[in-house]
Amino acid sequence: MDTVVLEGATHKKAGPGSVPGVPAPPVKRPKAKKAKKAVVFFEVEILDAKTKDKLCFLDKVRPLHKYYPQWYAARQSIRLDPKGKSLKDEDVLQHLPVGTTATFYFRDLGAQISWVTVFLTEYGGPLLLYLMFYFRVPFIYAPKYDFTTSKHWVVHLACMCHSFHYLKRLLETLFVHRFSHGTMPLRNIFKNCTYYWGFAAWMAYYINHPLYTPPIHYYINHPLYTPPTIYGEQQVRIALVIFLFCQVGNFSIHIALRNLRPPGSKTRKIPYPTKNPFTWIFLLVSCPNYTYELGSWFGFTLMTQCLPVAFFTAVGFIQMTVWAKGKHRSYLKEFRDYPPLRSPILPFVL
Fold this sequence. Notes:
The protein is α+β, with helices and mostly antiparallel strands. 40% of the residues lie in helices and 11% in strands.
């Protein structure tokens, strides 16, 4: 029978055996097939960023390491311009400003090593080196001082603080940190270890030396001071409070940053203060983990009153300032609504 469509309902025309006024059951129509998206094929040309020599031409895009096994994915830097920035792992070819025939430039980043291995090596060395000087193993000081201990309680306190700091860093590497990049160039580990291991040995040599003297005890004989005040022990106690406060603060910031990034992702978000009071410094500083790190080493310098420690703190401050400024600029560039009152590392100063 013929059908008539009236406002979306289907009725049969009156005919033999039909009942006038009673709608017929709806007629099922086949679903329209979705149009297939056009498939775009890309042709990719890979050139050496330095020599401009053609490395390969990919008419059916396959990973570069299929052609050059020695250049595994982690050591590749692919860029649109020889002197430009490397493309990110999450960049999609069809979203890049290229046509169907794209030219990329390749640069070998060199042998790579995982960040976890780097941090474990960097932080494990200072921990062990410092303990060797603390226990005065042979061939460090005169033979008569082998395996002797210092008579100054601040020396033992300094050892506990130093060991606690690097044990904390090792545990954070294993259980807290989430890295946006999986690897770094292998050559950098030698530079980093020279820095951390060298300073640790230099500091430990003087702090644990048999001739080391702790912060001087100043006795002030003045009518306003009765009895005389001993400033040496007070200095150490104040330094210990600063050190522990900043260690807890640094750990709190690392936990807050970890919670911003889901496991396995490279998502970047603006860090904000949480219910933890140690994170409230985010209101004024972009990288408070560096702020607390600087405070810890300032406390350690005040505690030991040792010139190598002060020098290490100063060098660390310069390096962390460079990192903090870089991250601060990155935040400002990536997030338009980034809080304008924040400074990179020191509130209202730097």
